[in-house]
Design goal:
There is one protein chain. The chain is an alpha+beta fold. The protein has 9 helices and 12 strands. It has 2 domains: 96 residues, Disulphide bond isomerase, DsbC/G, N-terminal (Nuclear Transport Factor 2, Chain: A, Roll), CATH 3.10.450.70; 134 residues, Glutaredoxin (3-Layer(aba) Sandwich). Helices cover 35% and strands 23% of the residues. The protein has a 5-stranded mixed β-sheet, sandwiched between helices. Strands 8-10-9-11-12 form a 5-stranded mixed β-sheet. The chain has a two-stranded antiparallel ribbon with strand order 6-7.
Amino acid sequence: MKKLIGALALSLSISAVAGIEEEITARLKQFDPNIPIKAIAAEATSGFHAVTLGSGEMLYVSTDLQYIMSGTLYQVSERGLVNLTEESLKTVRKDAMAAVLDEDMVIYPAEGERKARVLVFTDIDCPYCRKLHDEVPTLNEMGIEVAYLAFPRSGPDTPTAKKMEAIWCQQGDERLAAMDRAKTGDENELQNCDNAVIDQFVLGQQVGVTGTPALIFEDGSLVPGYVPAARLKQMLQL
């Protein structure tokens, strides 16, 4: 629980009566006065208020503010069990991804009509990221645009992060060429520039990315790990 409360960023999603937002804020700040609350929005959950942490984890605060729990919350409905936790996170991810500029990503456009866009948090030294990259031409032929965001698993100021910064320092087609070289193990000349690599690494952590590759669909769904092109096409219902 201490780990959850100490997360870097926080957004609240609640169904509340007047003043409950302030009460929840006050209660959470009892645990950590420095918790940065990003937003409060209404969402019905029976007897609980859903709290989405910037780390991608979820807390649930009871209406009487006496109980805080972590984990996945399901709702029993006519269509079976509905994962309310994932539904909340999908909205958070969708909004977060919409704020990322195209110019800050490495984008392999679809051939012809774009039927879908998949955002991929990638690490150039990750074997399964390289395996996925081998299938990018096939995905593009299917009408799937692949947009890469940086997620150096070793963290900031590491050899992998520096190699990825060398890619993000390029522009246009040269950025694609630099990514292609890196994915095959070839070296790019290291460069220093203003780039989005570390910001995207932090963003990935905030939306629940824990490893690479991590795919995010346009509805905010997160799919961890390598997915073959044919299977990905099915998942996108193309």
